[in-house]
Design a protein that fits this description.
Helix content: over 70%
Structural class: mainly alpha
Radius of gyration: 34 Å
Number of helices: 8
Distance between the termini: 73 Å
Strand content: under 5%
Largest sheet: none
């Protein structure tokens, strides 16, 4: 016998998995089915998923943490007012940390606008912020004189670089896949509820499909034969 082609095997496996998921949904009690539908609809009405909210909180933490480190750096290097005037008013690309703070503000605005306000389900916004952050920090580390200014010359660029890539990982491997999975579950549950509604009495109390009891085979024929046999007796 010839082996089954791989495409046919994949198709069979996909159909079996879909049928299995539908059987799992059909085996649920109708009350539980409606409860699941209401819970999924409640998440949709809430507007933003829990995992996306966690991502937005981490983006906010990114901005606040970099801001805190920058303020500490200002206070260490001769007082906040004097150092702030030196780094902002007399900005120098080779010695100032102000641009690293602005980079954190840029990440915060773009990501919150894209994934909290517009609720995008694509990775292009996080790819933009991560690419800009990585390129800018690499150029600044190579060209600037930050390493001669103490520990903050190492800490701020490294922390900003790590936070940007953690945000990328979290969105790409946690937020988007989990939201897609929840959306697929909602579609499966809604499809099962619609099919159950089209079959009157199709679900028993325990959530299983059943068929109406069949009449005994030949019962009608036996009744007719009995009536035919009684007719000659009546005529006599």
């Amino acid at each position: 016998m010839n082996p089954v082609p791989e495409d046919m095997e994949n198709a069979l496996m996909g159909s079996q998995s879909s049928h299995a998921s539908l059987r799992d949904v059909h085996s649920i009690n109708p009350t539980q089915l409606m409860a699941r539908i209401e819970s999924y609809e409640g998440r949709e009405k809430k507007g933003i998923s829990d995992v996306r909210r966690t991502f937005c909180l981490f983006v906010t933490f990114d901005l606040l943490f970099v801001t805190l480190l920058w303020i500490i750096e200002l206070n260490v290097n001769g007082g906040i007012e004097n150092t702030l005037e030196k780094e902002v008013v007399q900005y120098d690309y080779y010695s100032s940390y102000f641009d690293i703070f602005l980079l954190a503000v840029f990440r915060f605005k773009v990501l919150i606008l894209a994934y909290a306000v517009c609720r995008l389900r694509h990775w292009w916004a996080i790819a933009l912020t991560t690419a800009v952050t990585s390129a800018f920090l690499l150029a600044k580390v190579i060209l600037s004189k930050l390493f001669s200014q103490g520990a903050f010359g190492y800490v701020l660029p490294i922390i900003s670089f790590i936070l940007a890539w953690i945000e990328t990982w979290f969105l790409d491997f946690k937020v988007l896949p989990q939201e897609a999975e929840e959306e697929n579950r909602l579609l499966i549950v809604q499809d099962a509820s619609e099919r159950a509604a089209l079959i009157p009495g199709g679900l028993s109390s325990d959530g299983q499909f059943y068929s109406p009891p069949e009449s005994e085979a030949g019962s009608e024929n036996e009744a007719e034969e009995k009536q035919d046999s009684e007719k000659p007796l009546l005529e006599l």
